[in-house]
Design brief:
By secondary structure, the chain is mainly alpha-helical. It is built from 11 helices and 4 strands; from the N terminus they run αββαααβαααααβαα. It is globular and about 65 Å long.
């Protein structure tokens, strides 16, 4: 009798332990473990591809188009980074999530591309406003135009950062918004949180992760990390209201590109001024400008993020007809099997 009780107790404990990792109802890993494993794939698959194929692909590009030789290495590495991030995320959605890849917010359509174009325009507009305010306040001096540090033709040199920021915009949004919010919202949805509450909780937590992702950037401070958490909320607004990555990806690309290579600001602490449309000398109070980390760590950047969030809401209300949290993000829909 006692022997049977011991076995039953042991079995119950093992079942509880397994339940920490495995969702029996959905027949897949629990959300937190899926997010961790996808983040590892996001880090290591692109690095592996770049390490193995970056140099040969760069040499091939240089031989095929000698005029692009100065940017061929960067183009090769970031192209492979994009392919690796997409491939790693596809593996995660296919084998960990058991869902269709497009359900992360990449369901392309005419509406998707129009929203993407809005995101591109919004990022450019907001960074232009930041530049205009700083220039009017006398906090920046324009020192040149169409600057290239190494003498490479401008139109060739600018291709490097264009490729970089397209890749960064796609990969970071796919990780921090598409994958994390979707999976965390499904994990939070249940007895204690409604679907809408689960999406909001996932949105906020993913924004914390986004800030921490940049905490070791050059010139980072505790304040810049907090500011980038706000940036995570800002970038995620379009996603949680539409379930689409169109606005966040477009916004992320031009926010970074205009920040670094159009107006010559640091981008999250990184210097991209080897090629800029406008060269500047930064002054003014760091509290407002963000100092060596760039506008994202300044109060002007925060104001721009708030304004951008409001403009995103207005756009979605006019284009999509209403404003509400997309609760479909919190509901698991298994992968659709192809018909035989």
């Amino acid at each position: 009798m006692a022997h049977g009780v011991i076995h039953a107790t042991t079995g119950l404990k093992m079942e509880r332990i397994a339940g920490l990792f495995w969702n029996r109802n959905e027949r897949r890993l629990r959300a937190g473990w899926r997010v961790v494993m996808q983040a590892l794939l996001w880090l290591f698959v692109p690095a592996l591809l770049s390490g193995l194929l970056g140099a040969p692909l760069g040499s091939l590009l240089s031989s095929l188009a000698p005029v692009l030789a100065p940017v061929s290495g960067r183009a090769a590495n970031f192209t492979l980074t994009l392919l690796g991030a997409l491939g790693g995320t596809w593996l995660a959605t296919r084998f960990l999530d058991r869902r269709d890849f497009r359900d992360l917010g990449l369901h392309f359509s005419r509406v998707w591309w129009i929203d993407f174009a809005f995101g591109l325009g919004l990022g450019a507009l907001l960074m232009t406003l930041i530049f205009a305010v700083e220039w009017l306040m006398g906090w920046i001096d324009v020192t040149g135009a169409f600057e290239v540090a190494d003498g490479t033709p401008f139109l060739v040199a600018i291709l490097g950062p264009v490729i970089v920021f397209i890749v960064v915009g796609i990969t970071e949004e796919l990780l921090a918004r598409g994958y994390e919010i979707k999976n965390l919202a499904e994990g939070f949805n249940g007895r204690f949180l409604t679907p809408a509450q689960a999406v909001v909780a996932a949105w906020l937590l993913s924004s914390v992760f986004f800030g921490l992702l940049h905490m070791f950037n050059p010139n980072a401070t505790w304040y810049s990390t907090l500011s980038l958490m706000v940036a995570g909320v800002f970038l995620g607004t379009g996603y949680v209201l539409t379930g689409s990555l169109a606005v966040p990806i477009g916004l992320h690309i031009t926010w970074n590109f205009f920040q670094g290579n159009v107006f010559g600001f640091p981008v999250s602490g990184n210097d991209f001024t080897t090629v800029t449309f406008i060269a500047i000398r930064q002054g003014g109070p760091d509290l407002w400008t963000g100092g060596p980390f760039g506008p994202e760590a300044g109060l002007l950047g925060i104001v721009a993020m708030v304004l951008g969030s409001l403009l995103t809401v207005v756009w979605i209300q006019r284009r999509h007809g209403d404003i509400r949290i997309d609760t479909a993000l919190a509901r698991y829909r298994p992968r659709r099997r192809s018909k035989q």
